[in-house]
Amino acid sequence: MFSSRAKRLTENAPELDAIVIINGQEPFLDSTFWYLTGQRSGTFEGGIAVARDGNLDVIVSPLEAEGAREGMGEIHEYADREDRNNILKDLLKGCVNVGFNINSAPYSGVEYVRKLADVKVADATKSINDTISVKDEKEVEAIRRACRISSKVADEIPGMLRSGVTEKSVAAAMDNRMRELGGEGNAFDTIAAFGENASKPHHSPTDRKLGKGDVALFDFGTKYDRYCSDMTRTVFFGEPKDVLKRAYVTVMEAQETGFLCYRDGAPASEADIQARKVIDAGEFKGRMIHTFGHGIGMDVHEAISVYSRSEQILRSGNVVSAEPGIYLPGVGGIRIEDTCLVKVGGAERLTSFDRDLTII
Asked: Which of 51, 133, 266, 276 has the CA that lies 20 to 30 A from 2?
């Protein structure tokens, strides 16, 4: 079992006297706050978490105090701004180098702490990423639950498709179904792309109608206990163009090749390099226009880059996507994606669906 999350975080940042996580106003909230506190709900606008010497202190308003006590850390409920100032100054007494999540912390919040406690601001991003990227058993179970929900919806996609349905309507049906199955909101905006629209990896659903011969690409995920799933399924509605069938077979081979590179201690670059070799070996050279994968946790994109130039090393407990793709402008695109758990000696697919070429 892991030690407390705050303890792990401070052990990963020995050069810092403390790490302060600041929530701004919604939507500028930091998932690291929920990671450290273990909270399942709440908004915690303006909430502050202080990790120091392996301990966690959480400063909240009366609005969130009751819920805060259901999580981890010592809770400090403030009555007004002056009270909050005094609590924070006391918690940071004797600190010089204080780390912040520079990618998420609002500038106003960092300046507030710096001036109030007279500390030096340091970037704790790497220490935070190194900590949250290795999931504990509770986190893995939450991701498994999210993946089971999205996998069930993936199995049901063929039954949602008929001539004339729109991208928007199928995306809405998928979103609703994930909720019905226990999902707690989307991990990200669902992508539904028909025909030529599937050549755009981040396509937003439109009123484009499904017709015979179309490729239909769906990229979607849900949340469970705040943790995300992420998967992509691509099917064909009627007999597709031969070039798209060839692309599908190539992507399926590339995904399996890259997936087999996932293991504890492996370079994060290796999966991308090997999968890209498969795609670049034939007629689709250069058509994989994004990385092979990324980290997944409370945020659907966490700071593990599975890319040919990555210098990161995969660790047991990392959760990453495996999502090669081929994109043919004006024709369509193919992507196959699973959420994967890195283990010693290999990896486990947490999402599951039939990856064989499917014609409906």
From this structure: 266
